[in-house]
Design goal:
8 helices; mainly alpha; 2 domains; globular
Amino acid sequence: VIFYFPEGPARYVLTPAAFDALGAGALLAALEASDRLTDGLRWRLAIAAAVALALFSLTSQQASLAGINFVFGDFLMVVPLAAVVAWAGAGAKGLIGRLAASSVVRYLGRISYGIYLYHFPALAAVFLFCEYAALQLPPLGPIRFVIASVVTVAIAATSWHLLEQPLNGLKSRLSYTPVPVGS
């Protein structure tokens, strides 16, 4: 599909577009399972995350570096997220631990499926709104990320409170009958 429609959205939404994130998650899981995800490695990952964020910020704001951002931008965002997952999985202490245990982060975890579901439609809605209102949407980078994130979290929170949470409350009314294995 990507080869037939190279300029379309397929290159952003199909599984190959997420190989860097899937690979980072698989690598973290393999390191954790083999007891090789040490604090030293976590600190090196945190430093790499800071460098990746700086590079992403630089490449997303400089027109002359747009090609670098186009090729490596997604990967540059995966590195900090992998660092967060690595530290959270270790039961991080200190500032990172307090941040991970904060009510805001726990709430985002509660609505995370909605964030996953609605992030792409929310970005499309932001584009449509800006076009309709004749507003200039900021270029790729931190400002657009914040705008899209706020809209996505608002939609996911609304979905959680009006749809998902009430439906989850109905689970107790259903009876589950286990089916024997092999039948």
